[in-house]
Specification:
This protein has 16 helices and 26 strands. By secondary structure, the chain is an alpha/beta fold. It folds into four domains: about 80 residues, Alpha-Beta Plaits, CATH 3.30.70; about 160 residues, 3-Layer(bba) Sandwich (FAD/NAD(P)-binding domain), CATH 3.50.50; about 120 residues, FAD/NAD(P)-binding domain, CATH 3.50.50.60; about 120 residues, 2-Layer Sandwich (Enolase-like, domain 1), CATH 3.30.390. Helix 3 packs parallel to helix 11 and helix 5 crosses helix 9.
C-alpha cells in the first residue's frame, strides 16, 4: 500500500496573513498534495508549513511552487504517515452516518476509545454549521455590525462614517473562512485519527444489521445516526411555485437585494434580517406568533422589536400569510392580521426561516425499527438510544434543541453508550440559547411561563441596562436582564439577557442554574466592576433592593 508522507518545510519571506494564504495556495497546486497547513495570524511568524502528500509528491516541486509565489523554502523533514489498516466488514465497531458536528464528535470519541469506525457522509464534509449555518451567518452578521457601528455616533467628540460596502467581497471573505475551517477543523482533524475511515456516499440501514453505502456492505456492532436537518417551509399557497430562499441560500447571495421579505421572526430569521437591513436592504419581517423571538421572555421580544424598528426594519407579528406570488421578477406576499383586510408586501427576494426538520428519509429506518416523532425526528431516550437498541442518534436528526453544541455533546454521549453500554445521559440542564442579533438575546434555564407550567411558584426580577455601569460607559443602554427564581427556595430557575454582548454573559447564569444557586447567593458573589456580567449580580439584588439607590460597586 502506498504510504502518505508528512512533509515539513521552512518558508522564508512571509510577513503577514496574506503571505501564509499565498504559500498555502501554492502548495495546494502541486500534484500529489492532499492537504496543507500554513499557520496564519500570528503563526506565520513561525515560518513553517506542513504538507500531507501521496508518495509521488516531490520536494522539488513543493520548493519550486513556493519560489514562484515569491518566497524561499527548504524541506526540513519528510516522514511516512501510518496508514489505517483496511478493516474487514466483520471487524467494525461503529458506523457513524453523517459528517457534521454530531457525526465528527461521535467518530472522534469512538476513536479515542479504541474503536474501529467508518464515518459516512453523502454531502459536503462539516455539515450545516460550518458550511451554511453558524459560521457563515455569524461572519456576515459581524461584517454588517461593523459597517453599521461605523455610522453610529454614540460618543461626543468622535465622528465616524460607514464608507462604502462591497457585498460581493464580504461574501467572498466569508467563503474563505468557511473553506479554511472545513479544512483545518474537519478534513485535517479526521486525518489525525487513523482509526476512522471516511466514506463518501448514501447510507441505508438493512434489517440484517448491515449498513449499505453505494454498493459497499458494512456490518458494525453499533450505529450512530447523525444526519442533521434541513430548512422547512410551511404549506403557503403559491410558495413552492414562486420559489424562495432558505437560510442555506441567504448566506450565499452574491448580490445585495434592494428589498427583502423574511417569513419567520425567530433566531435565524431575525439574524439574517438585521444583517441585510444593515447592509442596505429594505427588510420586512412577517411572523405568525404575537411577538419576535417567541420562545423567549415577552419583555425580551417586545424590547428587541423596538430596537429593530428603530433601525428601519418593518416588523409585523401576529399575521397569517395567505398567498405568495412571483410577478415581474418580484415577490408578492399577501397576508392578514386578525380580522383586517388583506395586505401585500413586495420585494426582490423572499427568505423563509420557519424552522428545520430532521433528515431521516432514505435511511431505511422503518426496516430496522427506528421510530420517528411527530416532526419526523428520530425518537431517542436519555442515552441517545433509538427504539432499536443497536442504533443511536445525535444532533438535529434527533429533534430539538437544534444547536451545534448540543449536537457535539450528543454525538460524544451516543458514541460512548453505543460502545460501552448506557452509562452516560444527555445532560442539557440550564442549556444556553443565543440569538446573534444586535443586541443579542441569550437565555438559560426556564422562562417565567415555563417555570409556572412546571408547577413552580415563581418570583422574577427585571433590570433595565440603564442600571448597569458597563452599559452606561459604553453609551448603549439597549437591553434588559430578567431572572426567574423559585418563590419558596430562592433557587435560580432561568435567566434572560438582552444586551450587545449577552452571549458572553449567559454562561455564568448556566453555571449558577446547574449548581443550584439561589438568587441570594448570586447577589453575594463578587463580580468585577464595569463588566456586563455584573448585571447578573444587580438583577439578583433587584429581588430585594432598589438598585437605582445603590452606589457603584455596592455589594
Amino acid at each position: 500500500m502506498a504510504v502518505r508522507q508528512q512533509i515539513l518545510l521552512t518558508v522564508h519571506g512571509m510577513t503577514c496573513e496574506a503571505c501564509a494564504q499565498h504559500v498555502r495556495q501554492a502548495l495546494e497546486s502541486v500534484a500529489g498534495v492532499l492537504s496543507t497547513e500554513v499557520p496564519e495570524a500570528p503563526g506565520w511568524r513561525s515560518a513553517q508549513a506542513q504538507v500531507i502528500a501521496s508518495p509521488e509528491g516531490s520536494d522539488t516541486a513543493l520548493v519550486r511552487a513556493i519560489q514562484e509565489a515569491g518566497y524561499r523554502a527548504e524541506v526540513r523533514e519528510r516522514r511516512p504517515l501510518e496508514e489505517p489498516r483496511r478493516l474487514d466488514a466483520e471487524e467494525l465497531d461503529l458506523v457513524v452516518i453523517g459528517g457534521g458536528s454530531a457525526g465528527f464528535a461521535a467518530a472522534i470519541r469512538a476513536a479515542e476509545l479504541g474503536a474501529r469506525v467508518v464515518l459516512v457522509e453523502k454531502g459536503v464534509m462539516g455539515g450545516t454549521c460550518v458550511n451554511v449555518g453558524c459560521v457563515p451567518s455569524k461572519a456576515l452578521i459581524r461584517a454588517a455590525e461593523a459597517y453599521h457601528s461605523a455610522a453610529a455616533q454614540r460618543f461626543e467628540g468622535i465622528s465616524t462614517a460607514a464608507g462604502s460596502l462591497h457585498w460581493h467581497r464580504v461574501v467572498a471573505q466569508k467563503d474563505e473562512l468557511v473553506a479554511e475551517l472545513r479544512r483545518t477543523k474537519y478534513a485535517e482533524v479526521l486525518a489525525s485519527y487513523p482509526e476512522v475511515r471516511y466514506v463518501q456516499g448514501q447510507a441505508r440501514l438493512a434489517a440484517d444489521g448491515s449498513v449499505r453505502v453505494d454498493g459497499m456492505v458494512y456490518r458494525p456492532r453499533r450505529v450512530v445516526l447523525a444526519t442533521g436537518s434541513r430548512p422547512w417551509a410551511p404549506p403557503v399557497p403559491g410558495l413552492e411555485e414562486a420559489g424562495y430562499l432558505t437560510s442555506n441560500e441567504a448566506v450565499n447571495l452574491k448580490e445585495l437585494p434592494r428589498s427583502l421579505v423574511v417569513i419567520g421572526a425567530s433566531v435565524v430569521g431575525l439574524e439574517l434580517a438585521q444583517t441585510y437591513l444593515r447592509a442596505g436592504s429594505h427588510v420586512t419581517v412577517l411572523e405568525a406568533l404575537p411577538r419576535v423571538v417567541p420562545l423567549e421572555e415577552p419583555e425580551v421580544g417586545d424590547a428587541l422589536r423596538s430596537y429593530l424598528e428603530a433601525e428601519g426594519m418593518v416588523v409585523r407579528p401576529g399575521v397569517r400569510i395567505t398567498r405568495v406570488e412571483r410577478v415581474g421578477g418580484r415577490y408578492r406576499v399577501t397576508f392578514t392580521e386578525g380580522q383586517q383586510e388583506e395586505e401585500v408586501v413586495e420585494a426582490e427576494q423572499l427568505l423563509v426561516a420557519t424552522g428545520r426538520r430532521a433528515n431521516t428519509a432514505g435511511l431505511g429506518l422503518e426496516e430496522v425499527g427506528v421510530e420517528l416523532g411527530p416532526k419526523g425526528e428520530i425518537r431517542v431516550n436519555e442515552y441517545a438510544q433509538t427504539t432499536n437498541p443497536r442504533i443511536y442518534a445525535a444532533g438535529d436528526c434527533a429533534g430539538d434543541p437544534m444547536f451545534v453544541y448540543v449536537a457535539a455533546h450528543m454525538g460524544t454521549v451516543a458514541a460512548e453508550n453505543a460502545l460501552h453500554g448506557n452509562h452516560r445521559r444527555v445532560d442539557l440542564e440550564g442549556l444556553p440559547r443565543i440569538t446573534f442579533t444586535d443586541p443579542q438575546v441569550a437565555s438559560a434555564g426556564w422562562t417565567e411561563a415555563q417555570a409556572r407550567e412546571r408547577g413552580y411558584q415563581v418570583k422574577t426580577a427585571l433590570l433595565s441596562l440603564e442600571h448597569v455601569p458597563r452599559a452606561q460607559v459604553a453609551r448603549d443602554l439597549r437591553g434588559l436582564i430578567k431572572l426567574v427564581a423559585d418563590q419558596v427556595t430562592g433557587r435560580l430557575l432561568g435567566a434572560s439577557v438582552l444586551a450587545a454582548d449577552a452571549g458572553e454573559v449567559i454562561q455564568t447564569a448556566v453555571l449558577a442554574i446547574r449548581e443550584g444557586y439561589t438568587v441570594q447567593r448570586l447577589a453575594q458573589l463578587v463580580f468585577p466592576y464595569l463588566t456586563l456580567v455584573e448585571g447578573l449580580k444587580l438583577a439578583a439584588q433587584a429581588f430585594e433592593k432598589d438598585v437605582s439607590k445603590l452606589s457603584c460597586c455596592a455589594g
